[in-house]
Amino acid sequence: MLRNTRTSYGTVAIVLHWTIALLFFAQIALGFLTQAVADRPRLQFDLYQWHKSFGFLILALALVRLAWSLSSIRPLPLPGVPRWETTAARTVHRLILALTIAVPMAGWMIASTSPLMIPSFVFDLVVVPDLPFTRSDAIEAFWSRTHALLAYGSGLLALAHAGAAIHHHLLRKDTTLARMFGAHTVR
Amino acid sequence: MRVMFFAISLLMLLPVMPARADTLSALRGRYVVDPSSHIAFSVAQIGGGGIQGVFPRFSGTFDLQPGDMAKSRVTFSLQPESVATGEPRVEKFLRSSAVFDVEAYPTITFRSTAIRQEGSDHAVIQGVLTARGIAHRETFEATLVKRQGQTITFHVVGDLMRSPYGMDVGTPIYSNVVRFDMMLNGRRR
Ligand code: HEM
Ligand code: HEM
C-alpha cells in the first residue's frame, strides 16, 4: 500500500523515511569531511560540490515528504504508550522533518551569500541559482555557523530519535520500529 | 543630431590615431617585455560570469628578425604566485596544490617554436608552454598595436585548455578553457 493507514506506514512514507535518514547521516559525515580536508584543496573543492549536490537532493526529497505527510493520515500510537511519549515523539518528528528542510536551506544561504559565487551545479546536471541576498565574508560566515549548528544539532536529535526507536524494538519489544519497515500494529 | 555629433567626434579623433603604417616586416631587434605590460586571464563559469585575473610578475623577450617572422623568437615566463583576482580566497586556491602549486612550480614558461606572419600586423605564435612541470604545445595570436621610439606593443590572445597541465579542478563548473588577453610592451635593448 502506498498510503499510510491507521495501523501502518505506506510504502511512500517508508521509502522516503529510510532514503532521507541514510542521506542525512551521510551528508553530515560529508559536511564534516569538507572541513577535515582543508589541507587538500583539490579534494576539498570536489567534496564541497558533492555535498551541495546531495544537499539539494535531500532538500527536494524533504519537500516531497513534507507535502506527503501533510496530506496523509498517521498511524495511531501503539496501545499502551504513555500520552507524553506520543507527544514527545510527534514533536521530534515534526522538528526533524523541519530540520531536513532548514539545514539545506541554511547551506543554500552559504552558497548564496558567499563572495566566491561558486555555482551550484547539482550532480553536474542542473544549476540551482543562488538566492538573492547580499554577499560578504561576514554574512557567509554567519550562515556557515548557522548551517553547522543546525546540522550537528539535528544529527543529535536524529540519533536520539533512532535510539528511541531501537529502545522500543529491543527493550519494549513492540512494533514501533517494525512499522517503519511495513509491519502493522500488533496489539 | 546624435549621429552628426558622433561623426564629428570620430573625425576629430582621426589625427591622433596612428596611421597603420607599422608592419611586422619593418621590426627588428631584441626587445624585453616591460613591467608596464598587462597579463590578464579569464575562466568562464556555468551560468555566466567567471574568474578574471592578472599576473603582475612576468618577464620575456622578443627577438625579431627583420623581414622574416619565421626566424623570430619569443620567450615568456610568469610567476603564478603573483596572481591577482580581487578575491584573496580565490587567489589562495589558485596558488595551492589544487591549481598552480606555486611552491613546487614557481614559474610558468612559454617558448616559441614557430611564428607565422599573417597579414601586415598579425602573427600566429606556436610554442611550448610549461606549467606544473608539464610541457604542451600552445598557440597565441599577436597583433602589433603600436610602435613608438624604442617600444613596441603587441596585443596577444590565446585560449588554453588547463586539463593537460593537471589543473582541471572545478570543471565543468568552471570552463576548461583559460583565455589569455595580454598587452605586451617590448622595450628595445
Ligand atoms: C537509523 C536511524 C532511524 C531509525 C531507526 C528511525 C526509526 C523511525 C521509526 C520507527 C519511526 C516511526 C515512529 C512512530 O511510528 O511513532 C520513525 C519516524 C520518523 N522518522 Fe525516523 N528513524 C531513523 C532516522 C531518522 C532520520 C535521520 C530522520 C530525519 C532526518 C528521521 C525522521 C523521521 C520522521 C520525520 C518520522 C515521522 C514519520 C514520517 O514522517 O515518516 N528518522 N523513524
Ligand atoms: C540536509 C542537508 C545538509 C546537511 C545535513 C549538511 C551538513 C553539513 C555539515 C555537518 C557541515 C560541516 C560544518 C562544520 O563542521 O563546520 C556542512 C558544511 C557545509 N555545507 Fe552542508 N549540509 C547540508 C546541505 C547543504 C547544502 C544544500 C549546501 C549548499 C548548497 C551546503 C553547503 C555547505 C557548505 C558550503 C559547508 C561548509 C561551511 C563552512 O565553510 O564551514 N550544505 N554541512
TrEMBL record, chain A:
It comes from Shinella kummerowiae. This is Cytochrome b. GO terms for cellular component: plasma membrane. Its cofactor is heme b. Residues 9-182 form the Cytochrome b561 bacterial/Ni-hydrogenase domain. The lineage of its organism: Bacteria, Pseudomonadati, Pseudomonadota, Alphaproteobacteria, Hyphomicrobiales. The keyword Oxidoreductase does not apply. It is found in: Cell membrane. Pfam families: Ni_hydr_CYTB. It is a multi-pass membrane protein. GO terms for biological process: respiratory electron transport chain. PANTHER family: CYTOCHROME B561, CYTOCHROME B561 BACTERIAL_NI-HYDROGENASE DOMAIN-CONTAINING PROTEIN. The chain crosses the membrane at residues 12-33, 53-71, 92-111, 149-171. Keywords: Cell membrane, Electron transport, Heme, Iron, Membrane, Metal-binding, Transmembrane, Transmembrane helix, Transport. Belongs to the cytochrome b561 family. One of its GO terms (molecular function) is electron transfer activity.
